[in-house]
Amino acid sequence: MEPRDGGAERSDADSQGAAGDNRYRPGYELVAERLLQYIAEQNLRPGERLPTEQGLADLFGTTRNQMREAVKVLAAIGRLSVRRGAGIFVASSGGTLADEELAHFQPTDMAHVLMLLDFRRLIEAETSRRAASLATPIQVRAIRKSAQVSLDVGAAMDVQGFARADTLFHDAVADAADNVFLQSSVVNIRGFAAQTDTLLFHGDVPGSLEVAGRQHVAIADAISAGDPERAAQLMTAHIDTTQHQFERKIRNRLAFTGSGEALPDPHHSPGAGLSWRSAQPSPRGPSGVPTPRSAADRKRP
């Protein structure tokens, strides 16, 4: 299948995702968002204890029921740990400085999401490039199969089916890159992206699944043809489309909260928060990736 023009795909994705942009957001999701900001502003580290549900509810000027649901959501995505009889804690990390900084990732903050996507762009462009040079025939078949399945279920608007196929596709590309650190990075990126999906999209579809499926097929074709540069460029375009959808969704969230009222902002002061909160993604070249290596001189199935 011939790759589609990125601009046309972006328009398709916009038109299909725009309808749900201004949907009402449940109060507990807004509370969960503010609770993550509070943890960052207070510089709470993994393992540190938070106030009780009632104490947090009083602090945020909300109900205990809403706070309970917010805590459940954050525990489900791995940001909080609730220990019966002990209390609510910031979820523990591996103990490194990087882990502690990442514990303050804000899934609905534009700067944080852009940094995540910038990292994903670098990592997955490289996995695609390496896969085009290193993939075995069996790995190529796995990549092509998962790409085609993602297109089929995407065209049918099967959201859960697409999520499974999308995971299989990106994991298959990372596996073919033959580098355990790149594979681990792809898995970690997906974990952070899932937090944004839960708190920002909450079951909604941010863009066209069929467009994403067509992009997967184009990437798979480039990998199968042994064309590292083409594979990296197509993966970069794929993530650029995702970034555009995320940016639009976050802009609409900032312009429209659903309830029409801002939540109380305890202990907030201008400039509070992490130093990396205002950081911008690093610049990149026209393709968004390092200069690709030459393609492997061999045929693909």
Keywords, separated by commas or semicolons:
11 helices; disordered N terminus; Four Helix Bundle (Hemerythrin (Met), subunit A); 301 residues; mainly alpha; two-stranded antiparallel ribbon
Task: Describe the 3D structure.
The protein has 301 residues and is mainly α. The protein has a single domain, classed as GntR ligand-binding domain-like (Four Helix Bundle (Hemerythrin (Met), subunit A), Up-down Bundle). It has a two-stranded antiparallel ribbon with strand order 1-2. A hairpin with a 3-residue loop joins strand 1 and strand 2. The longest helix has 28 residues.
Strand content: under 5%
Quickly name the level 1 CATH class. Answer: Mainly Alpha
Percent range of helical residues: 55-70%
Distance between the termini: 15 Å
Structural class assignment = mainly alpha
Low-confidence stretches: 1-22, 258-301
**Which architecture does the CATH hierarchy give at level 2?**
Up-down Bundle
The SSE order reads HHHHEEHHHHHHH
Q: CATH homologous superfamily - what is it? A: GntR ligand-binding domain-like
Gross geometry: elongated
DSSP, total strands: 2
Describe the structure in brief.
The chain has 301 residues and is an all-alpha fold. It has helices at residues 6-17, 27-41, 53-60, 64-76, 97-102, 110-134, 137-155, 159-176, 180-201, 209-224, 228-255, and strands at 80-83, 87-90.
